[in-house]
Amino acid sequence: MSAAPLLEPRDRTGDVASLFRLHAPDRRLATDGIHARLPAGPAATLGQRVATFFSTPRSGPDLLVGALPFDPHADDALYQPARVSAPGTGTLPASLGTLVAAAELPSAGAYADAVARCVAALQAAPNGADALRKVVLARGLRIEGSAPIDPHVLAVKLGSDASVTTYVVPLPVKADEAPAWLVGATPELLVSRRGRTVVSHPLAGSARRTGDAAEDRRRTDALLASGKDLHEHRLVVEAILDGLAPLCSRLQAPPRPSLQATATMLHLATRIIGTLKDPDVSSATLAGVLHPTPAVCGTPRLPALQAIRDLEPFDRGFYAGAVGWTDASGDGDWYVAIRCARVQGNAMHLFAGAGIVADSQPALEVDETAAKFMALRNAIGIDDVRAV
Ligand SMILES: C=C(O[C@@H]1C=C(C(=O)O)C=C[C@H]1O)C(=O)O
User: Fold this and answer.
1) How many other C-beta atoms lie within 10 A of the C-beta of residue 257?
2) Which candidate in 115, 257, 325, 368 could, as Cys together with 268 as Cys, close a disulfide (CB 3.0–4.6 Å)?
3) Helix, coil or strand: residue 235
4) What is the pLDDT of residues 139-164, one digit of tens each?
5) Class of domain 3-380
6) Around Cβ 135, how many Cβ atoms within 10 Å?
7) Half-sphere exposure of 115 (CA within 13 A, CB side)
8) How far, in Å, from the CA of 119 to the mean position of ligand 1?
9) What is the model's pTM?
10) Residue 374's pLDDT is what?
11) Ligand 1 centroid to 178 CA: how many Å?
């Protein structure tokens, strides 16, 4: 197998299991080893657990890294790394080996049926603040390889799109299981904190990017004028403003979204900036308050979570959760864990979801989720998700 030069460190034993990587356009973080684990718990107690962790004298970096699962009531997986590592001290194989798309769960047809059932429920929902207004429904694709899949090779391939944040996050596994990671390339910032300044940059309302400049311009204009997509987007911005408002003395968001493009997608995006009233509110607390936003869950949160449980035939695990870091000062970055795969042994599970509102059309949501698989599909070189 040919080797690519100087891409990512191995740790001292050459083990990749505990390597964490978060490469944002403006900041690169890589760590290796696990010094101590944060006691696991739900999103609501994350801020308190992190504060307790850092208030206890200990050796090792003043840093916690890891992932929150989609379900805010399920256990998260954060740990203090052994070392912050300098990227570029090792080599990686250039290839992921032979991969085939093995199974869709659910099939495109079953996904369309679930979207149709969801639309019917949204249309039947009574008017009022508590009524179900949006549900994000996802589907999965299992890919199999001829040999164990190296998550860092996949991340390097995903990193060829400079507009996204690539990540590799070790996931908890049972004692008899092979190591597992969440590997992805997200365009979406859940929340970032530096001192008192808080930034969130949600996306919702999407179209496939074609690569043809005139057609992409047309799609961009259509997206920025689409009542359905602006509504889907507004619900996310409102939820984030509602979450941040009690914590901020100043909070600003432009009245209309702008366009954010990745190599494969066009998204409506809004950059929200706030100033914390209390500088002791950490990025972990903020992530715990905001997650899951209606970009990945729906509105209102609890009925949307229930609809997802009822309509999706799989457990999301850490897909549509959050990945990131927080330090002892409370600063940190948390990204929405989308455009990703759970990698374990010879297999990976890809996930893609789309926001459903009362006027969504099932066939268009099938296409939107197929387009959202493209980032991963391009990286692993599988052209057609239906090919087996
Ligand atoms: C849920 C996903 O993406 C989210 C849903 C979007 C939408 O519905 O338009 C856009 C970006 C993300 O917030 C995903 O990629 O799996």
Assistant:
1) 24
2) 257
3) helix
4) 999 999 888 899 999 999 999 999 99
5) alpha beta
6) 30
7) 27
8) 17
9) 0.94
10) 93
11) 29
